[in-house]
Amino acid sequence: MHLLHGNFSELGRLTLGLGIEEVDGILIDLGWSSPQLEERGRGFSFLKDEPLDMRYDPRSQTVTAAEVVNERSVDELDQMFSGYADERFSKDIALAIARARQAKRIETTGTLVDIICGVYRRKLHSDREVPWVGGAHPATRTFQAIRMAVNDELGVIERVIPQAIERLKAGGRLAVITFHSVEDRLVKHTFKKVAAKKAVRIITKKPITAEAEEGKRNPRSRSAKLRVVEKI
């Protein structure tokens, strides 16, 4: 076993560095482990006031969540929140962020959460401090979108899939686990494009999801979707 530190998008370089040219199978898990979710200090959670960072690897990444929030235009923020996370109040949140940062730079998760909750209170005509929606915190989608932008998560998926397929032997399989609809759509469409070129065949016409019992034991598994292709 070899444990390597690197980004998914570096798969080709990392495997060649070990002298590995072909493999029987590759599993790409795009989720977070519970310890990662519970880690404090980098602003991934909206439940505690922390610096707006959100970089997966601060040693190699320079752009932080604070820079994204404070420096992107209203249109860019709107497109990010709607495109990456299907946030229904994306434009309102983008405008609220723009107004707030004119007075003072937004540096912490707590400040950003207050801005988002203010939008939701107005939109839902609620006087609750946190107007929970369908069991989800109103900041959930916005934080997801910012994290995806900071770490170029969709770009990583687009770059790693061709590298993974290239490393497979004929008959080898690539399995990808996603945890939200934007990722799943991208993996689905990328697999279809590669299959159209007769490079792979799609094994899972529909994604494999957790059974009810597993969902009860591990609630986070409910959003997981597994798609598999086989190299021809």
Mean of all residue-level pLDDT scores: 94
Task: Decide which structural class fits the backbone.
Answer: alpha+beta
Q: What spatial form do the alpha-carbon principal axes imply?
A: globular
Q: How would you characterize the largest beta sheet?
A: 5 strands, mixed
Radius of gyration, in angstroms, nearest whole number: 20 Å
For the record, the CATH class of the largest domain is Alpha Beta
Which CATH architecture of the largest domain?
A: 3-Layer(aba) Sandwich
> Count the strands?
5
Low-confidence stretches: none
Gist of the model:
The chain has helices at residues 11-17, 34-38, 65-71, 74-85, 90-103, 109-124, 140-150, 153-167, 181-196, 212-217, and strands at residues 23-29, 168-178, 200-202, 208-209, 225-231. The protein is an alpha+beta fold. Helix 4 packs across helix 5 (90-103), helix 4 packs across helix 7 and helix 5 (90-103) packs across helix 6 (109-124).
Care to describe what's here?
This protein is α+β, with helices and mostly antiparallel strands. Helix 4 crosses helix 5 and helix 5 (90-103) crosses helix 6. The chain has ten helices and five strands, in the order H-E-H-H-H-H-H-H-H-E-H-E-E-H-E. The protein has helices at residues 11-17, 34-38, 65-71, 74-85, 90-103, 109-124, 140-150, 153-167, 181-196, 212-217, and strands at 23-29, 168-178, 200-202, 208-209, 225-231. The two termini are 27 Å apart. It folds into two domains: 8-33 and 153-231, Rossmann fold (3-Layer(aba) Sandwich); 62-150, Putative methyltransferase TM0872, insert domain (DNA polymerase, domain 1). The model has no long low-confidence stretch (mean pLDDT 94). Strands 1, 2, 3, 4 and 5 form a five-stranded mixed beta sheet that branches. Helices cover 47% and strands 13% of the residues.
